DNA sequence: CCGGGATGTTAACCACGGTTCACGTCGGGG
DNA sequence: CCCCGACGTGAACCGTGGTTAACATCCCGG
């Protein structure tokens, strides 16, 4: 769908501004080493400038991380809302749409997947709360579909199932990437669907 | 099986020495905030001593993390070897044994699960290599069983499946814990088995 | 041609945190 | 009794790294 990895950060994917270059480079570095272990000099070097040049574009390192995580969770939440609405009324179709959406996102943005669940704790209290609110809304869409599929299951059980499915699909960053994208899509979709309808 | 969480660290679980107390407290703190974000003073305070007292028991902060991760991966690898051997020759039984083992470990040691896949990058090159070697041996046991179950699947595909199953089962730290342990065991076992045999 | 805003650079500042040091306490064996 | 090793403490040391300051460059609109 998109040419370069982790492009979900791009507001304007066509001609990435210096600001967007920085965000994407930071996402890659954060995913590799963790946000606390990567210096502003490293981020600058990754885009060909020195460290302090960053401050022409961002208030600070934590502001970069905050914008990164807010964009991701916003994009996931909005995307899920959209694909569910487009899937019609059958919960099975809705589940298929959510799985396809999450699989695509995980394969397109491996670094963002890693950063989101690893560096949430590095955010300020306010930013963390906002990200968690968006994440919760995303999870609740899954919970609603899973509940419709299995009305006998309790809400906490559906929530646990949703998290298990996220873990399954988001395993891509750990899987090396020896498989073609198409093969990974098929593999993850099959496994997730089987796990969800067990 | 064991009373307190993350007890897999204990060499002698009966009367935890000060050294073991420190390791376990550090594991909990590392899981909550990430190893880079927790200070030596924090670890000391968690066991009722000051920061520098740590150096009576460990060479340094990185040595603590190294010992922690080495013990975990050693324990997982050895445990998997044992339960597979005890499961007989049927690959279905072997898979069930591996799933049960991993589910138990994930539910008993949520903090260790989190630390292991988040702070591997904080290790020295030598320690990281050793941990990765143990992890690889663990994964290969899963790959062997998955290959026996589905001889048509390629090795990379089986490896990706194994990682997907790890992600599914290791989702426990994200699931809050509103469900009873028994319910989580049933839920994760069912989902993992369905995903593995899809 | 000129002034100003955008963008970078180098050097300096400063807080944080891992580590070391010198010293205190306490319990047990010679 | 006393000495020694184990275990802790508070103070100091010092590298790392985020942030700011002061000074260039370049480009564009008037």
TrEMBL record, chains A, B:
Family annotation (InterPro entries): Homeodomain-like_sf, HTH-type_TetR-like_transc_reg, HTH_TetR, KstR2_TetR_C, Tet_transcr_reg_TetR-rel_C_sf
DNA-binding region extent: 39-58
Record bears the keyword DNA-binding: yes
Pfam families the record matches: TetR_C_24, TetR_N
Domain HTH tetR-type: 16-76
Gene3D superfamilies, sorted: Homeodomain-like, Tetracycline Repressor, domain 2
Keyword DNA-binding: yes
UniProt-listed PROSITE patterns: HTH_TETR_2 (PS50977)
Keywords: DNA-binding
PANTHER family: HTH-TYPE TRANSCRIPTIONAL REGULATOR RUTR, TRANSCRIPTIONAL REPRESSOR MCE3R
Name of protein: TetR/AcrR family transcriptional regulator
Organism, scientific name: Klenkia sesuvii
């Amino acid at each position: 769908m998109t040419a370069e990895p982790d492009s979900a950060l791009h507001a304007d994917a066509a001609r990435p501004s210096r600001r967007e270059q920085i965000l994407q480079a930071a996402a890659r570095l954060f995913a590799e080493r963790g946000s606390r272990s990567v210096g502003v000099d490293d981020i600058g070097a990754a885009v060909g400038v020195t460290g302090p040049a960053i401050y022409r574009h961002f208030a600070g390192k934590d502001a970069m991380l905050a914008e990164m995580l807010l964009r991701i969770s916003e994009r996931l939440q909005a995307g899920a809302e959209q694909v569910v609405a487009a899937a019609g009324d059958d919960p099975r179709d809705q589940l298929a749409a959510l799985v396809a959406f999450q699989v695509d996102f995980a394969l397109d943005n491996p670094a963002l997947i890693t950063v989101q669940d690893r560096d949430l704790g590095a955010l300020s209290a306010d930013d963390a709360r906002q990200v968690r609110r968006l994440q919760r809304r995303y999870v609740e869409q899954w919970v609603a579909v899973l509940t419709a599929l299995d009305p006998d299951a309790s809400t906490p059980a559906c929530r646990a199932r949703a998290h298990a499915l996220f873990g399954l699909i988001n395993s891509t960053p750990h899987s090396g990437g020896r498989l073609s994208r198409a093969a990974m899509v098929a593999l993850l979709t099959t496994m997730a669907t089987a796990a969800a309808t067990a």
